[in-house]
């Protein structure tokens, strides 16, 4: 069964609180799981959220600040302890290789699972992996340490139209055949179908406003983006390389995002509804989620 949902493991910025763990997020995309930014305590949050090590196929780290990466050591060791039956690939900034090495081998353990290291470097949109159901890309962001955002794009396809199939007398096994082969006798696939846009998902963490943020967000069905500060602290956000709720919402508005997920909140704020209020005030009119630990957010239905 095809399942596409975003599982929130932690939402705190820099310092965990009584109600928010350090960062950690799992994207379920059909039969694969992509773990983003496993901060301290991710292993425990996985248990609480019903996420197993077996669910992880890729790990994507945006940058090497502790709240986004200190959980790597435990997660990698758990993958090996549980003898996950498939290889796991890790993506992270190449400039942080020494930090990844230290976390991967923080303590002694027995390696039982192949872990492929595929560091990210360079400017512009970088293609990292491609398969039948998505293309994974990365784009540099603007933060005091090198940081990358990630985007998954499903290839565009075609949707069969029952009325057109009936008009041409195509039914039963022949429907699958024309989908596979592109034509059936004199009838082409285009004559009995219509274009179907692939889904897009973007994950944007610690960054100021920059071209990379806009490129990653463009046309996304779901955008997960940091909103560390409220708008009244915009100067502080810029100084420390972060976004406000209003800035994140305006990015989503201008990019045509369908579902906006705000996360990575500073411990100085105690009322989550303020983030929602400011995002709405910024003109975002799509679906909005102010993330809380352990919630599951389904991706929007395909267009």
Helix coverage percent: 25-40%
Low-confidence stretches: none
Class per helix and strand makeup:
alpha/beta
Please, what is the average pLDDT?
96
Shape by Cα distribution: globular
Fraction of residues in β-strands: 25-35%
Q: Strand sequence of the main sheet, in spatial order?
A: 6-5-4-3-2-1-18
Output the helix-strand order.
EEEHEHHEHEEEEEHHEEEEHEHHEHEE
Question: Number of helix segments?
Answer: 10
How many E-type strands?
A: 18
Q: Span from first to last CA? A: 19 Å
Rg result? 21 Å
Biggest beta sheet summary: 7 strands, mixed
Quick synopsis:
The protein contains ten helices and 18 strands.
Give structural attributes.
10 helices, alpha/beta, globular, seven-stranded mixed sheet
Overall description:
The chain has 303 residues and is an alpha/beta fold. 26% of the residues lie in helices and 26% in strands. The protein has 10 helices and 18 strands. The strands form 4 sheets. It has a 7-stranded mixed sheet with strand order 6-5-4-3-2-1-18. Strand 11 and strand 12 form a beta hairpin. The longest helix is centred in the last third of the chain and has 11 residues. The radius of gyration is 21 Å and the shape is globular. The relative contact order is 0.14.
């Amino acid at each position: 069964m095809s399942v596409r949902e975003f599982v929130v493991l932690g939402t705190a910025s820099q310092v965990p609180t009584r109600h928010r763990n350090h960062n950690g997020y799992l994207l379920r995309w059909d039969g694969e799981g992509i773990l983003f930014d496993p901060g301290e305590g991710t292993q425990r949050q996985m248990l609480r959220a019903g996420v197993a090590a077996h669910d992880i196929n890729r790990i994507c780290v945006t940058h090497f600040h502790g709240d986004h990466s200190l959980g790597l050591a435990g997660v990698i060791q758990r993958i090996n302890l549980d003898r996950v039956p498939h290889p796991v690939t890790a993506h992270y900034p190449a400039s942080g290789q020494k930090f990844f090495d230290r976390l991967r081998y923080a303590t002694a353990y027995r390696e039982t699972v192949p872990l492929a290291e595929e560091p990210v470097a360079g400017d512009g949109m970088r293609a990292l992996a491609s398969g039948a159901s998505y293309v994974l890309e990365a784009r540099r962001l603007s933060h005091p340490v090198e940081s990358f955002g990630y985007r998954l794009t499903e290839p565009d396809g075609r949707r069969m139209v029952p009325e057109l199939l009936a008009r041409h007398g195509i039914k039963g096994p022949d429907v699958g055949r024309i989908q596979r082969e592109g034509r059936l006798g004199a009838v082409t696939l285009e004559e009995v179908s219509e274009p179907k846009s692939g889904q897009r998902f973007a994950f944007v963490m610690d960054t100021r406003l920059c071209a990379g943020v806009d490129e990653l967000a463009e046309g996304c069905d779901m955008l997960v983006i940091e909103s560390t500060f409220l708008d009244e602290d915009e100067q502080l956000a810029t100084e420390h390389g972060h976004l406000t709720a209003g800035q994140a919402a305006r990015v989503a508005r201008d990019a045509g995002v369908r579902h906006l997920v705000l996360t990575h909140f500073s411990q100085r704020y105690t009322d989550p509804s303020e983030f929602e209020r400011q995002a709405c005030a910024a003109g975002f009119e799509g679906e909005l989620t102010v993330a809380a630990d352990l919630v599951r957010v389904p991706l929007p239905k395909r267009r």
